[in-house]
Amino acid sequence: MIIQGIVNPHVQSLLCRVRHTNTLVIADAAFPFWPQIETVDLSLVRGIPTVIQVLDAILPNWKGGEAFMAEEFTAHNDRTQQAAFKRACRGLKMTFESHLEFKNRVPHAIGLIRTGDTTAYGNVILVSV
Amino acid sequence: MIIQGIVNPHVQSLLCRVRHTNTLVIADAAFPFWPQIETVDLSLVRGIPTVIQVLDAILPNWKGGEAFMAEEFTAHNDRTQQAAFKRACRGLKMTFESHLEFKNRVPHAIGLIRTGDTTAYGNVILVSV
Amino acid sequence: MIIQGIVNPHVQSLLCRVRHTNTLVIADAAFPFWPQIETVDLSLVRGIPTVIQVLDAILPNWKGGEAFMAEEFTAHNDRTQQAAFKRACRGLKMTFESHLEFKNRVPHAIGLIRTGDTTAYGNVILVSV
Amino acid sequence: MIIQGIVNPHVQSLLCRVRHTNTLVIADAAFPFWPQIETVDLSLVRGIPTVIQVLDAILPNWKGGEAFMAEEFTAHNDRTQQAAFKRACRGLKMTFESHLEFKNRVPHAIGLIRTGDTTAYGNVILVSV
Amino acid sequence: MIIQGIVNPHVQSLLCRVRHTNTLVIADAAFPFWPQIETVDLSLVRGIPTVIQVLDAILPNWKGGEAFMAEEFTAHNDRTQQAAFKRACRGLKMTFESHLEFKNRVPHAIGLIRTGDTTAYGNVILVSV
Amino acid sequence: MIIQGIVNPHVQSLLCRVRHTNTLVIADAAFPFWPQIETVDLSLVRGIPTVIQVLDAILPNWKGGEAFMAEEFTAHNDRTQQAAFKRACRGLKMTFESHLEFKNRVPHAIGLIRTGDTTAYGNVILVSV
Amino acid sequence: MIIQGIVNPHVQSLLCRVRHTNTLVIADAAFPFWPQIETVDLSLVRGIPTVIQVLDAILPNWKGGEAFMAEEFTAHNDRTQQAAFKRACRGLKMTFESHLEFKNRVPHAIGLIRTGDTTAYGNVILVSV
Amino acid sequence: MIIQGIVNPHVQSLLCRVRHTNTLVIADAAFPFWPQIETVDLSLVRGIPTVIQVLDAILPNWKGGEAFMAEEFTAHNDRTQQAAFKRACRGLKMTFESHLEFKNRVPHAIGLIRTGDTTAYGNVILVSV
Amino acid sequence: MIIQGIVNPHVQSLLCRVRHTNTLVIADAAFPFWPQIETVDLSLVRGIPTVIQVLDAILPNWKGGEAFMAEEFTAHNDRTQQAAFKRACRGLKMTFESHLEFKNRVPHAIGLIRTGDTTAYGNVILVSV
Amino acid sequence: MIIQGIVNPHVQSLLCRVRHTNTLVIADAAFPFWPQIETVDLSLVRGIPTVIQVLDAILPNWKGGEAFMAEEFTAHNDRTQQAAFKRACRGLKMTFESHLEFKNRVPHAIGLIRTGDTTAYGNVILVSV
């Protein structure tokens, strides 16, 4: 039995398939459903788990790259929440763009991990180096 | 979009298929893998989510029935932890039996929800009325 | 066993996958078949179940959004029937458009629940907030 | 488009596969789930549709045979309900046996149609001539 | 066991999925194969069964609509054969168009029932009301 | 396009897989459904096609072997019908046994071709040389 | 067990699906792989079987139509080889076109039978009448 | 493109899965069909290809082991044929046993390659070292 | 993109499913094929990769447990090779048993990782704590 | 059991399907994931196995053709590494093009073998003669 790290078989399989220039969506509970994107749904009820918990699980073993979020995230969340997401991104270059532009990236993603997060516009797209 | 309750499609589908006398396993992170049992794996890392979070999500809309746990759970956990599981079971009749007897129930289950819980012997089998 | 709410596994799974801006079609018995849309067929014979029964099952746990129907619905049904559908929509903003426009929305839907309803043009498209 | 009779593709397909000596289960909402039996789940919420609605749909085009129910059905339902089920069986020979014996027939069934019926022990097994 | 009507599970399932404006192809033995169209192949050898036998099975429980055939059918068959197809169509509005136009309808069909019929251009497309 | 012989892809595929000592069931419309046996369902309505039509299609290119039927076939059919089946078997050694013994052979068959035949006990099991 | 003709289940199934205007590719060992075309791969090693053996198996029961080959076949093979292919085509109208044009036909084919043949440009496309 | 050796993807995949103590059946055209055994069917018509052609393709790159055949092979074939099979086995230890014992080995095989061979009892089971 | 650790999606998925008391087989190139066991085949040619490379990849993040090998491994390998395997097992309790007993464990394993290793009896079964 | 050459069933199957003009990608560990391309993932950890090991396995039995690499490979690797790749290509005509042009070839490939190689731009596309 493995000791540490992510223990979910589907999440691990997906992470091994995100490589150079590939993107991965970490979505909140209400983010639209994309039938054509491979989805790992970890949600239980609203609030469990959070996007930050998923970032905390993935990023310690993640190689550089960028993170995208919707500009609307900044407008709809207070400083504490914004700081928490920034910290969770562990120094990745963060780009904020319109929610529409953000959603245009989804069809090109390798996969999407859905959480139960209720943060407004609390979705993050990781682009691998 | 639904307002409240469980938001995970696979968990909801599974719950609708647990009926009279059927059983459902809520397993901790380390509980053996049972390839022949339909499994919803909600685990992310150790500790996320917990078995109690799953019970809290399911039992408010759950009809009576029983709950089974391993006797070893009592021996390996302090009173606080034991009380927390009892409270989470919301008055269901709880039966403690040997871990071996407990595991003999698994092959007859309709499904298993795996968590990241690290509570020793923190597995619960719900038997529907 | 769950106590209340929708007891159908496929309907529950589908509802959990309708999120921000996603749409869901509730169709009468004669609405065209769309092979490319995930379909839950609840119909038995003409009249069982009705579109209103499905709305009554879904909307108590449904977050705002809009409802679309064909304009032809108004022309082909009396006031009682129109009032019944309005009541069933529980205050959702209702938009009536041509049947052709209505059908153009279907290919973008997350899923379709087919009933046995015989109300003329008795189809409703729910758009999630 | 067909004019009359059962309009559900899966129900129709199943009925065409029930032949000499084959059996078909019409189950209430709470009847145990049998993963190994082909199941058409028509349930929406408790009460929709009923077992009698399914019998009314099937039996007008059904050739003789028998119907089995649990003895417990008689003990737990009043005369009106009993008469309704009898009428719905349209003269089929009805046999009442213990719920345990009744359930032993299920694994041999060709299929099971699940309803939302809440009648106590309101399950019927049709055995084809 | 059902008493009368179509006894083939696949044909029945297909018919239940042909609804408003949907089309169904009844093809002779030599009509081109369309891999992308759901096909029920009832053919045994040339001549068994015929397109008219399929029409006779379907149309008694079929709601209005139209029937399309190739103009070439008229040129290649005598009056008796033409009358037989007309009778089999039971008063449906029949439209004759070029074989090319006729074949352009096929990719939009819900399904195709293949027979062993050897009538020249003996293919019929049913369009549901 | 092939000129003569069986034109049904599934029937042809099945026939190529019936070899030394393998058996093939040709069943009437009402013969029990065997979910575990590969089945080609050629039935349309009662009477179409017949078991004899299937035998006439298969046996001209069939190497010796035996044919089994139920003894009850003899009791329930007149001489004309019996003679027709005998002729259709084209000199194969025919063995009549109890319907129960006959049905015990089915689970060992390579496949089953279902017809719409209504001849009482009109089922034939071909055993390849 | 069938007496004569093609004994391969997949080849027989494919042939029954090649009808009016449909095409079938008989390919040599080195012909490009077309993942989107249903392929029956009969090859063992180079030289086994040959394209001519496949033509000899198919064409005795084949209705008219045309055969296409690449012009390059003529340039790269001696008279004996050319005569052998012509003989194998049994009077079908043969058209030679550039290898590029030839390959443009492949995506429209119903299927492809791959051989182990090593004849240069030894591929044949049969077009059914 | 590979230069030499077996060019069939399925045969190559199967050979890579035959390892220590595993067995592989090379069957003639009439050998019974075993639905539960992974089968590569290379047969075209009777005689193409032969069992010896398959042995010639496999054994040059085959590590020791044994070969089993039915004793009946010896009784039903002349010396030339026997010698040809022996030569094809390239020094493998050959064991002849009753056809019944031979067939008892089949359900344990990793796979079966079917040929069109017509040699009486011309089946060989290779047991890997 | 992940930085370190196992980069193979299937291996990672399998490891996440090996839990309390579950077993995992690391097999050499020639170990028998077990069709019923989920297999990740990492082999390329003999010698690539080795069992020790797989152990080195897995065990740094592996929780206690035991390792089983065949006694024959000791008899057929020199001290250097034995020491290398022991070192690779990183202090796991190692048990040597007969190759027959060893193979009896395989059908109970969660999965098998096949290597190209050529070490005699170089197979290891890891049993999770 | 085969003696020499590639022992991986999936790799062998893929190689048999790369023919005239078809292409095969040998990718390093970080090369983007292409969900639509059939992928054999041989990677274990970074460095195991290498692209050169795969070339060494494939090219001894490979017929001519070309090899493509990214120009960036030359810029990012020293002479030793460049020489090693050249040697591994065994005289194939090697073409260096921009990484972008290189990646444009991937969607047309028959398959992709992923390694654990960490060589910068260490990807090779083999084009078959």
Q: Can you describe this structure?
A:
Ten copies of one chain form a homodecamer. The model of chain A has no long low-confidence stretch (mean pLDDT 97). Chain A has helices at 9-16, 51-58, 71-76, 79-88, 99-105, and strands spanning 23-27, 39-41, 66-70, 93-97, 111-114, 124-127. In chain A, strands 2-5-1-6-3-4 form a six-stranded mixed sheet. In chain A, 30% of the residues lie in helices and 20% in strands. The longest helix of chain A is centred in the middle third of the chain and has 10 residues, at 79-88. The first copy, chain A, contains five helices and six strands; from the N terminus they run H-E-E-H-E-H-H-E-H-E-E. The interface between A and I is medium-sized, with 26 and 26 residues.
Q: Averaging pLDDT over every residue of chain A, what do you get?
A: 97
Largest sheet of chain A: 6 strands, mixed
**Gap between N and C termini of chain A:** 30 Å
Strand content of chain A: 15-25%
